[in-house]
## 1
Amino acid sequence: MAPTMAIFVLTPFIGLAACVVSHVLISRLSPGLQRVRSILASVGVGLAVVLWLGALFFSGDARRGATVAGWEMIPAWALAYVCLVYCYLLGFYVLGETARRIRLLVELLGAGERGMTLEEILSVYNAQMIVDARIERLLAGGQVVIRDGRFVTGNRLMLYAAKTMVLLKLAFLGVRSESEAV
Amino acid sequence: MADDERHAPNGGVVVSAIVFALLAFTVFLAAQLVLWRLWKPAWQYAVLPGLALLVLVAAMGISRAFAPSTSPFLPSSIFDYGNFVVLYAALVLAYFVTYPAVQADSPSMTIVLLIDRAGPGGLAREELAKALDNQSLVLPRLEDLVAGNLVRLEQGRYVINSSGALLAGVHVRYRRLLKMEKGG
């Protein structure tokens, strides 16, 4: 395989790199911008790079001798790029944003070798804070709405995702929830 | 036949890259499903990548064993294999990212399910707080950290280990780079 062909195989990773760099730049240059908008913009930049490389492959000499017509690779690279961006966003960025384990580690990192008792941990990070933060996010996203002072289901997309997760738990673990497994 | 000489007989290489990667990924999922139902390994996060690698090697072996000309679904050139491996790896990584959500209950999803179960009358904030307490939201995650050797419990105090400090440090520095405050 020619070196240029090898570079084109890495197109999804190049798109991911463009997405991460633009995410950092947008977040730093426009700190006031809504997080979802900075994410969408950076994902768009990465996708544009993937499409540009696809067009380059289609039109240039790089594909000479390849077993593809050029444009055929774009869906494959775009799909791989979407998976990699999903990994970056959900596996890294959102993890730092919402994961309880990471938040607990950050608190314990701050405590150093002295560590923290359970009471000390719960004084800085507890169930009420977790529920309040999630409720705010769900209200802002429209997945939950307030009616007569009570929370009711809004946009059902997240509900369907949650039900799918329950089905996956049943399939893989044989239980409907973590608490059931205990 | 050398890569440089071969031409697509049916223009179906995208079929081999996408469909073969999707097929291999489906086999990986099915293998995990069967394995986990029969014997759920204690070191799930170590076994999963091993299983993914095993399926990848098996898929490439099958592809090599059958002549490329017999099916447009099989990769045939190094370029095809490269694209297949990249796509399969991307799918598997995306699954690895999703899998912890299958194992642990997400508070947001639990809240959405609780509200749905409550019906048209919905739920009050106090009812939610009662259903989701420290026992269900914080303690299991602390136990995960201890079990994962990221944190140790010493005389009633939770102390971070070097691996935990490394992981937390990466997130702290990255969020600082993004000019963001603590998450969670």
## 2
Amino acid sequence: MITIEHVYILTGAMGAAFALLSARDRTNPKRFGNAAFWGLLSASFLFGSELSDFANGVLVIALIAVGGFGLMHKGAAPTTTPEERATSAAAHGNALFAPALAVPAVALVGTLAFRNSGLVDPKQATLIFLALGVLVALAGCYAWLRPPLLAPLEEGRRLIDTIGWATVLPQMLASLGAVFALSGVGGAVGNLATHYLPLGTPLAAAVAYCLGMALFTIVMGNAFAAFPVMTAGIGLPLIVHRFGGDPVLMSAIGMLAGFCGTLMTPMAANFNLVPAALLELPDRYGVIKAQLPTALALLAANTALMAALVYRF
Amino acid sequence: MMWPLLGIAVVIVGFAARINPLLVIAAAAGVTGIAAGLSPVHIVAAFGKAFAANRFVSVVFLVLPVIGILERYGLQERARALIAQLRGATAGRLLLAYFLCRQVAAAVGIPFGGQAQVVRPLLAPMAEGAAEAQVGPLAPAQRFWLRAHAAGCENIGLFFGEDIFVAIGSILLIKGFLEANHIFAEPFALSVWAIPSALLAAAIHGTRLLLIDRKLRRAIPPPEALRASTSPQGGGES
């Protein structure tokens, strides 16, 4: 059976290749910083399941040191000029879309058709078929475009260098969330909310629950972390038990109020910061700023829905 | 009891001051753990354990070699040219079409889309290509503004579609939490209550996306929003 561990080995191998290619990139004044960073990340993927928790933690501290203290610099991976690309685009036509679409297509068909076939771990089927889709697309590219042998890895390094240390932010923030949980941050926030917010009326409780979901999600970067805290602190004791609101409707709309927070926070790095880097925006918060008006309007709309409906069903 | 909240203060100040987020996270984890009485070894181990457990988040970067090699052979240029040939295609309509497709796909549980898989190689260059066909060459700020909106379509479509699908993580989390509190919830009943918000999201964000074309036509400079040093509110809308 193919499991996520196989996908981690593939990802680790890619990271090792990025490290080696970075190390030999003499145009980059900080080439060994880049090599160290991708090498450490590769080690995490290859050996993370075997290492002790503390050893994993030391590895992460090394990653933070290399990425956090400016030891990296965007490399100059060999690629084509804009003119060569325009010529190639005209020559190859719309067939260029085929390998790009093959990745999500394999992920989709594979997940739907083979999730419960016993060939793959059903819990991680989408990621496993994403990795298989990548291999299928790369094989197609080699056969059709006949690029230099190392070109996909050099081009991959070009893109990962545009993201740089932000590559590990989603994992880092999830880890910070784990330390928060271990330290009782959720309970402390819930206490603050219930002690200092005016929650005496049904309307006030509904509004406080929605805004609290959004605010706590902004802090934690994840509505899943906010939901148990706010629902145990305000939702169940006040909206449901004291004022007789509907718990199902409350939870569904409350979670969506939390998602409005996800759209507004740099803590949700994989949705907001990594895309900004990937799209080469000069402003790290560019994606958040584009989403902000929608997020605020939707937070108001969800709060209104909650206030209007939760005590009627 | 309240001391662990110091870590949240570190995060807020650090992000607002635009200090390298990796250092902010490390500081916040240290401050929070120590305030809660954890030993440094315990904090490092907890952090490392979670980092390894969350590696699946980064697996998506496997697509970069495919996207990179296709860009080498002109994928973005082709995407721009294709959309420029399409009559009636505008940046706003294109983004609206993608946003609605993303929302519907998420609502029925189809795993299609992604910032690395679709937005960077296809959607963003197509939006730029459509805009160039509408109004001619774009200023860099307009280009970045369109790209940011392409990323936003992906996120908003996903968030306000996926909760309609009964087997998604958030629905299962809610069901599990309510059951632990002796409230039985049908996943279907939960997903039905995601529909009003999804429709409101389609109306609100769809309207904003259609206004993109008007802004491009009027050559309204994109809001200050996308320049690094200004306030986050920009012109208020868009």
## 3
Amino acid sequence: MSGASRRARLLVRLYPAWWRARYGEEFHALLADHGLSLRCVRDVASAAAVARLRGDRAAPLADRRRGALAASLWAGAVFVPVGAVFARMGDPPNSPLWVATNAHVLARVGLVLVVFCAFAIGLLALFVAIIVVLPAVREAWRTRHRDLIRPLAAMTAAALLVVLSFVALYINATTLTRAQMQGSGPWPATAKIAIAACLAVWLIALTLFTGGAARLVRRARAVDPEDLAVLACFFVLFTAAGVIGVITWGAALLIQPPRAFGTGPTAGWIAMVILALALALLFINALAALARTRTTNQ
Amino acid sequence: MDGFGRYADPALVIMTSLAEGPKHGYAIIKDVQAMGGPKLGPGTLYGALERLEQRGLVEALPVEDRRRPYRLTAQGAEVLSVQLSHLQRVTSTGLVRLGLA
């Protein structure tokens, strides 16, 4: 198999299994004839993302419902344990998590694999969301339509909020580290408040971004009305984004002195809140997916 | 072309191309380009073809050397003629109002 053919095969694999079963071979032949430019890759990735979001409209309702529920459960199965593990990374070295990972090589390898998978899936979800929202953003830019500009502004504000909260968290961490090195001791209360404030900011940003994106997708003519299933994708995306936030938190704990972010029961409670949030989002996603299959069946 | 969303325009040019006779994907892309239509990407082409097939406006023929030709159905021809007549009315009105016809 030539390099071009292998790349074409990889592009075909972006589509869901039901789509590949029906169109896979002929689509691969078309890609071989057409050639793979950057524009072509973007076009195929965008169409594949839409096909994944739409699902197989020809499949029986029970299968589609089962598929939507299975996707939600898989997302939960991957993201929730990862979030739980990383939220507990600030625990002392004699905690069960560290004792288990230090005692077994397999547990350590498993932990690294889980981190890698969560990052990969989180980034993939982000990529899918960008690809799907891109035509709507382009239309907003081209038409300067007020109905589209407002949600776009809300999404930008949300993204800025997240960036600012990360900067604040970083400054907080470095200040605390310096204070520790100078011997003036940590300020655990400040650190905990900063973490809680950042989580609150992320929640506000999440609401702003999801709402903005939903309105943008609904109003933009460039987006297929059937693609409104993208809403369900956003719920999964932000579950992933939340987990990536927790992973960042965990990674920072590994780099910075563990006490810098405050440990003990507060960290445990925050982890519980994040878990509850992730579960709620997954539940809403499952409900949205169910509602979608019901609507399309009518 | 309700429910086609972003695939409405590509679907119309694809049906116009198939009005000439059955064609496979690459031949449709080339034909649409030749008639001055938009440059269809493979993803857009198959997104539109999938929707057209689901609505019974085009149908797939047996595969020939890994390439599957598609042809316009009777229902597809009817929908295409309605769409093109509508476009023709809009075009004629526009040209008259511009003083060009």
